[in-house]
Every structure is written in C-alpha cells, then in structure tokens.
Amino acid sequence: MIACLGRIVHDSEAESKLDDDVSTIFNSLNLQGSIENGDVSGIASKDFGGLYSVKPLYLIRPSGAEDISRVVKAAAGTPHLTVAARGNGHSINGQAMADGGYVIDMRSTGENHFKLLTVNGSPCIDISGGALWEDVLRRCVSRFGLAPRSWTDYLSLTVGGTLSNAGVSGQAFRYGPQTSNVTELEVVTGKGDITVCSETQNPELFFGALGGLGQFGIITRARVKLQPAPDMVRWIRVVYAEFEEFTRDAEFLVSQKEDESFDYVEGFVFCNNDDPVNGWPSVQLNPDQEFNPAHLPQTAGPVLYCLELAFHYRNSDQPSTVDMAVSRLVRGLGFVDGLISQVDVSYMGFLLRVKRAEQDAKANGVWDNPHPWLNLFVSKSDIVDFDRTVFKKMVKNGIGGPMLIYPLLRSKWDSRTSVALPEGEIFYIVALLRFVPKGPSVEKKVAENREIVKWCIKEGLDFKLYLPHYRAKEDWKRHFGNQWTRLEKRKANFDPMAILAPGQRIFKRTN
Ligand code: FAD
C-alpha cells in the first residue's frame, strides 16, 4: 500500500499534451467552473490518511450541480473514465481519489445553498454538499440561533462527505447519526441526472446515497433538521478503572429519556501512565482540576476508561440550576471517587474543540503525519472480548492518538440507508486514531490494524468497519451481508457503469 506513494513517473510529453487538452476539455464540457490537469502533488492525489497517492487525469472545480452532471456524462461517454467527488479529503484510504479519472472538488460548491425553511412546523436548512460543517455551524448559530442536532467530533468535513458515511458523534445516541437527520437531498447520479430525493420522492436514491460511500450519486444539496442552539455546555470527564462499570454507565446514559440524560455521551480509553499523548495528561480538561491517579484502586489495569459528557444550557440559566442538574445526572454513576473534571465552555467552543487540537497539532508538526486509522462498530455482545484482547493487550501501550469507544443505538439508524451495522440494538463505535511519524512504522501500524480486523473475523465478532476500506469483492460482500443484493441493485439503477467513487474499490468501471 505505502509502496504506491510516488509510483507515478512524470511523462513530460504526455503532460504537455494534457495542457493542450485542458482547454479543449473545458470548452467541450461547457463548464462554468474550472478544470486543471491532475497533479501527483496536488490535493486530489492526497488525503488525510497519507497512505495512498494516485494521479487523477483532471481536477475540476464545478460551479454547481450542472457542471457535475456534465462531467459525469462526459465520463460516461468514454470506456474507462471514473469520477470521484472530493469533499475535504479527510478519508484515510484513498476513498476520494480517482486513478486517471476526474476528481471533483466539492468545496468549490460550498456556498451554493444556505436557506432556512420550515418543514411540517420544524426548522431545516438547505446546505451545499460541499459545505464544511464548521461553516454550517457558525452561520446557523449566528444568523438564526439554530443548529443541526447531530454532529461529528471534528467539523472540517463536508456535508456530502459525512452523509456518504454516517456522521457520528456524542449526540448520535439521541438523534441518530447525521444520516438520520436529513429529509431531502439533491444528487447527481452516475448517469448524470440531477435528482431531488427524499423518503417519499425517489426513496431508493435517497436512502442509497445516505451512507452509500458515494456509490449512487454526488450529493450537491442536503436538507438538514435544526434545533435551537444552546449558549453553553458543561463539559465533564469521569474516569473508570473497570471496563464493566464504564460500559454499564455509558449504556445507562444512552438509554435514558431526553430530560434524564446528558446531551452528549462519548468515551475513550487511555493508558494508566503519565505519557503525555496516551496517558493521564491527555485526559485533563480543566488545569485547575488535575486528575490524581492516587484515587485509583489497586486493581486498576494498564488501561483506564473515561466517559466524556456534556450538558447544554442557556446564558439565562442560573449557575446553581446547572450545578444541580449536572449533580443529579452524575449521581449514581460508578466512576472512581474523585476522578471527575468539568469545565464550562460556549456551545460553539465545545463543537469546535477538535479544531483547537488541530491547530496545536499543526503547530507541533504532527497533524500532517500519516494516519493509519481504524474505525469499527462492535456489538455490545462482543465488546468485553474486544476490550480484553484489543485494548488490554494489543494496544495497551497506546497508539499515539485517541482511542474512542462509546455506545450507539441501532434503533436511531434507518435500516433503509446503505450503512452496514452490527446486529444488536446497542453497539459501540471504536476509533483508533493513530498519528504516526512518516517511515517504516506506518506499515507496522497498518499491519496492526489488519491484525485487529483479522482477529474480529476469526473470533466471529458481530462487527462492521466504519469508513470501510476493502479491496476484494468478497470482503465487501461480507461487509454488507444481506444488504449486498440491495446495494448491487441500487448500483445498477443509479450508476450502472460504476463511474462514481472508484476510490472505494467496490465496483469496477464497466463499458
Ligand atoms: P472525503 O474524504 O473527501 O470523501 C469521502 C468519500 O465520500 C469519498 O468516497 C468521496 O468520493 C465521497 N464524497 C465526498 N463528497 C461527496 C458528496 N458530496 N457526495 C457523494 N459522495 C461524496 N467521522 C464521523 O462520523 N465522526 C467523527 O467524529 C469524525 N471525526 C473525524 C475527524 C478527523 C480529524 C477526520 C480526518 C475524520 C473524521 N471522521 C469522522 C471521518 C469523516 O466523516 C470521513 O472521513 C468523511 O468521509 C470525511 O469527509 P470529507 O468531506 O473529507 O470526505
């Protein structure tokens, strides 16, 4: 895989011919946007993962859905060309790339839609597929005092990019993933048709595109549900020595009614040592409330667990009312006595918390390191085994980045979307978010991820990859299980020549 890096040899003769071709192509496509030659060092050849690089033929910055439709139709008129929508390129395994094909930079369409509507008495916003969630947040809150209900932890991701996967964060236990909070899409299909779809209008395309890994169409507009935005958030971390106690509390909190739980529930695993990246210092929330490991029981093992919670409130709420509400919710949780830390932050500050981490990591030079990340959904029935083998043994010394784990409820996901989930009602998202210096250790970490997946398969765990990446069709069939036939049918309907999202490597381009 890593060997793919730099495998493209520049052919200067071919390149100069391409330069001539660019203007011809631009004119023949009648584009309103712009087009440039694919470049091995350009954005379309890279992603956040830093593991793969392939050279596209052209990078296109469309002005809107019409341009995208023209590009898809042009590709369809050739025997081999493919089209990849590139959101913000935050994939890990080249999913937004097109080797020798067209890459569409969706960011150029980010400003095309931003309109507040009321649908059945509830507020919604029409936003561009190429908009970044952080811009959606800022604009919705500042202009309307409203905000989407379900988020990702990090918001420099595009609307179309996360909706093509699921979009999961600590609100998903209540509202479902982002794909459960969309009522209408505009999509350019693999035939180049610009189609509006919803639960009642073209529902196969609507549900296919949600979590569809870009296989059925390019999302150019999404209608997203909104709710009143709170002003402030009480952000809380509590530490557990025992996995069983951590999962019992996490599952309890995600199963409570709205008024009887927090507004956000996540969790993570960290090492029981003073390592600045993997250990205690990484848990610190409030510098005035240092976690003191002396509180830990003698029985504490090599890894510990932290529940991360948030409680929304308004500026007009009395501090004592907020304190009482939080104390009531925290009471009865079985975390280690004394190991609680909390801080009050603005709602925007809370949702943009990973942006601050990004700025720090950029300043330290680690943000641009390769990221051999592994994301899984693991059924509650297997999570204790997973903890025993993966957290307590395989990665017990940390991974050089966060190790997230928190429960989600299947009933909050719509089974008509394309997302593949484990069977049980409660399943955990597990995210091993590695930051690895360039060099041979990257291959090692990729191999470690592979070992974990192999172990899950060998032990027959009820699990699915989130942000999946497989190469062999057999693996994709296993991943989708009994949804595979539906996926194939949808592909045949909406992208019969397999032009779209070639970087997912599910279907081969046909003529
Ligand atoms: P890209 O990587 O550009 O594209 C991803 C896939 O979607 C590609 O196949 C592409 O062709 C396709 N695609 C892109 N745009 C469109 C479109 N408009 N229509 C159809 N297909 C399209 N995920 C979570 O769920 N929760 C998190 O908390 C979370 N945090 C993250 C934090 C970081 C730092 C990073 C790097 C990733 C995180 N992710 C998270 C994963 C993220 O949701 C996915 O990587 C997502 O695909 C990235 O969006 P993007 O806009 O960069 O898409």
TrEMBL record:
Alphabetical list of SUPFAM superfamilies matching this protein: FAD-binding/transporter-associated domain-like (SSF56176), FAD-linked oxidases, C-terminal domain (SSF55103)
Catalyzed reactions per annotation: N(6)-dimethylallyladenine + A + H2O = 3-methyl-2-butenal + adenine + AH2
Biological processes annotated in GO: cytokinin metabolic process
Gene3D superfamilies linked to this entry: 3.30.465.10, FAD-linked oxidases, C-terminal domain, Uridine Diphospho-n-acetylenolpyruvylglucosamine Reductase, domain 2
Chain ranges of the FAD-binding PCMH-type domain: 52-229
Source superkingdom: Eukaryota
Similarity remark: Belongs to the oxygen-dependent FAD-linked oxidoreductase family.
UniProt xrefs under PANTHER family: CYTOKININ DEHYDROGENASE 7, GULONOLACTONE OXIDASE
Official protein name in the record: cytokinin dehydrogenase
Provenance organism: Gossypium schwendimanii (Cotton)
